[in-house]
Each structure stands twice: as C-alpha cells, then as structure tokens.
Amino acid sequence: MDCEMLSYIILNLLYEADTEDGNMDLQNTTNIPDFILLGFPLHHEIKKLLFTIVLASYCITLVTNMLIIIVVKVNPKLHIPMYIFLCNFSVMEIGYTTVIIPKMLSVLLIERVTISMHGCLTQFYFVFFSGSIENVLLAIMGYDRYLAICNPLRYSSIMTHQVCCWLAVVSWISGCLIPIMPTVWVSKLLFCAEREIDHFFCDFGPLVKLSCSDTSKAVTTFFGQAWILILSCCMVTAISYTLIVSTILKIPTVNGRQKAFSTCASHFTVVSIFYGTIIFTYVRPSNINTSYLDKTVSVFYSVVTPLLNPIIYSLRNVSIKQGLQNMVQRHINIH
Question: By the number of CB atoms within 10 A of the CB, which of 46, 254, 261, 267 ranks highest?
C-alpha cells in the first residue's frame, strides 16, 4: 500500500467523524495542485555536501537503532523495562526519520520537489505521531529511572513486565490519537495561489502561513495540544530527574554516586537535547517569524538528535555494549 492510498484512507476515516461538510472538503482536496517544498536557499555545491552528510546520518541512525533492537531481542538479560522502553524508542526513531529525511534528501538533490495534499497531510500526521510517542516515552523512561534509583527495593514489584508493556502501549496509542485533530484542522484550510512551503517537510507553521482562510481554530488546537503534551511530559521528566539527583547526592560513597549517575546520564542527555529543540519550535510564541532558524532547528531534531540518541545509549550503556560484543562473538564462532 503506497503513501497516497494510505493518506486517502486516513482522510476518509477522519472525515467520517465530520458529517456536516466532510465529504465536500475531501472532494475539494483531490483537485488542488501539489505543494512545492522550497527547502534551503543554498548554493548547489553546499546542497550536495549537505545531502551526503544527511544521507550518511540517516544510514547510521537506521543501522544503530536496528542494532539496539536486535541486541535487546536476542539477549534475555536485557528483557527488562529499561531496554523494552529503549526498543520502543528505537522503533519510533526509525519511523520518525523515515517520514522526514527521504523527502529532505529529495529537496537537497532536486531543484523542484512537489508533494500532494494527501501526501502532505500524511507526512504531517506521522511526524507528530512520532513526536507524541517520543514525548510520552521520554517521560515514562524518566519515571522508570526514578523508580530504579529512588525506590530500588520496590522497583521490581512496581515496574512489572505487564506494567512495562502497558506503558509502552499507552505511548503508541497516545501517538495515534494526539495528531488527529490538528490533522483534521489542517486538512480544512484553504490554499489559494501560493503553493510554496518554506520548509523541507509539511510542518504546521509553514502550512498555516500559506493558508488564505481563517487559521485560528487550527492554531489554537495545534499549539494547545503541543503546550499540554510537551510541557506535561517535560515536567514529569524534570521532576523525576530532580528526585534522582537528590537521591544520588545522598549516596555516601563516590563510586556509588558515579554508578548511579551512569545509569541515567545517557537518558538525561537525550532529554536535554530533545526538549531544547522541541520547546523552541512548538512552545515559543507562534507570531515569531523565523523560518530560516526554524528550518535549522528542524534539521537538528530530525537529523542530528536521532543520530546522537542510539550512539549515546550504546556508548554509555555497558549492557548494550556487552550484548553487542556477545552477538558479534557468536556470529564469528558460527562462521
């Protein structure tokens, strides 16, 4: 099933809930011309260099995340909540980068890149589907580290395998539900003569700027959900790490403090990078027009951060490194 067919099915499902004018809007969207992605106003040679860097980063992101999933899957010792959440995080990262980066590579390689209305709405939905999952997963992983460090004796009884699986399922369900209303409102926007999206993917801000209809409901819905989701998940994570740091500082021995810090340092690094970029993009006042800076920050959270996440996890996590070494050793012994 290709992207166009998938987007058409999604739109039909969304519009069934809107019985008043859903069929008319859906019919109109099938006849409008394609959008043009402007990408970056850079020299051709610089675009070629950036294309090479982004492609290499994308390949590394895919390989490293797949390795994490495989290592956790084949190593029974890693079938614990921390690594189950990490596997879900890696699956999300693979999907997130795959939704954005291929189109970004096209923008860097080809002079004029277009995307249909259905394709644009599909990309919009799945970008924020993945972003919603990441927010919830990071909050859950922070809570998991809080339980492991601050309540080690009760950890196994609280964070059971069943609870772990349910939390993972909740993150994916929330990812499915949260982007629905913003996608519906964006699909209802009218676009007149101007069809050029000043971005390398279908982001909310550039689409709203292109619209020649009333965007107040779309803006209120999108940024209302963004503020609630991002700030609530960020608050849960911040509280978890505040309690973690407070507990670690009470450990009497230096070795004990270092060991405790090492178990959550990688996650804290990922959280800092993610929320630093995402809050700038979706929580700051919406009337600030910084399209070039927005695109630069978008490159960071869609290319750089997904590249760093698995590297940080694998380089700073002894269990992952040991599991990878064991897997390689078994493969060498077989052959």
Answer: 267
